[in-house]
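Throughout this chapter, every protein is written as a compact record of paired, labelled lines. An example of such a record is reproduced below:
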Amino acid sequence: MTYYNEMYEGSQVRDPYARLSQWVETMPADFRQMKQAEAEALFRRIGITFAVYGEGGDPDRLIPFDMMPRVFEQAEWRKLERGIKQRARALNAFLRDVYGRAEIVRAGRIPARLVYQNEAYEKAVVGVVPPRGVYSHIIGIDLVRTAKDQFYVLEDNCRTPSGVSYMLENREIMMRMFPGLFRGNRIEPVDQYPDLLRRTLESVAPAKCHDRPTCVVLTPGHFNSAYYEHSFLANLMGVELVEGQDLFVDGEFVYMRTTQGPKRVDVIYRRIDDPFLDPLCFRPDSMLGVPGLMDVYRSGGVSICSAPGAGVADDKAIYTFVPEMVRFYLGEEPLLQNVQTWTLWKDDDYKYVMENLADLVVKEVHGSGGYGMLVGPKSTKDEIEAFRAKIQADPGNYIAQPTLALSTCPTFVAEGLAPRHVDLRPYCLCGDRIELVPGGLTRVALREGSLVVNSSQGGGVKDTWVLSE
């Protein structure tokens, strides 16, 4: 299979990478190794780690960081930005609809059972319209590239997409280590993201809020794999990082315990899953949430970002219908295309997939993090047959996609530069306006030949540049 190399066309360096090529060529190997060690030391000192649960031992790992940036021209980014914003509008329109009149279901465009029997669909918020009609406030859209002008959406993340701290810290560390690179290149900044995030949260404060809204970040606590990001964003936004025990409900509002006494909270940027938000509404054994929170939310006393139930929009079975959402709600043609997808609850799709497992990528509908999937061309016969049995037991729990020719980006390895497969997660903020910073999180599959970029599966990260005009 041939892969699009984002830096090279044959032996010629593409224009966006011209200066980086000179930088690499003039960098001695011992200097590069010293800088790589410096980057790792900075990440460790700052505390940027992630956890892989269920593997025993110390769960905190240092995420691999590659010093070779990924570069987009301004025209490429503008095209992506338009498509991302369009998709974000459609996803929020879908959420408003399915928690209301469900016109798209009535019209027969999406099967009712995929919505109402979906474990992410929350009956507790049917009929509740959050401020500005926004349900998903931070949308991470995973994109892959297969050719110069061909980008595809791999999946949508409408609940609590993680990784934005890596986007910001990758840039900070690169600027600290190689200031000359930034003086010699016209690179769009990303450091305004925390300000835009806070402005987005404040813009969706409930109508009952009269002063400047008080926002908080709600975390499950320091044992969570993304705890660093929770504290990092709270600090950069200048808001409090709280756990469920720090909040309580009194009457129509939510309050935060402080040393000066209770303080009313207007907007909660939650980083805990729906089932744990409120033990009186969801899981009664949850120790992470706030008893009575959902009553206040439903009565308009507090905003929760993203809204409970937003996850129904990013289910992998629902994903196949997003282009139809764009047409149905916006009356437009999708600017970003989905990857061709077979849904195994359809008989014809099931038959095709079972006959071609060795050539396809099969994913659990509710899976994430690179788990619960089969990459056919990279799997043994025994692995394929074991996965076949799982599919036969519950076909509706899986979708399948072709093995994409993901683009490659030059990445530093022991011998120098080598092509490695990448994807991109931009973060789209939805409030009184829809906006995103120029860039995102580029994840890279560091293992040679691997197509799985998730950090839990051996992937790393790199800085993403969008060049100014």
In short: The chain has two domains: 8-336+404-466, 340-402. The radius of gyration is 22 Å. The first helix runs from residue 18 to 25.
